[in-house]
Amino acid sequence: MGKAFLPKHIGFIPDGNRRWAVDRGMRKDEGYAHGIAPGLALFDLCAAIGIEEISIFCFTQDNMKRPSPQKQAFIAATAGFAREIAQREAAVLVLGDEASSQFPSDLTRFRVRQGSGIKVNLLVNYGWKWDLDGLSRGAIRSCDVSRLDLIVRWGGGRRLSGFLPVQSVYADIYVRDELWPDFVPVHFEDALAWFRKQDRTLGG
Question: Does pTM top 0.90 for this prediction?
Answer without folding.
Answer: yes
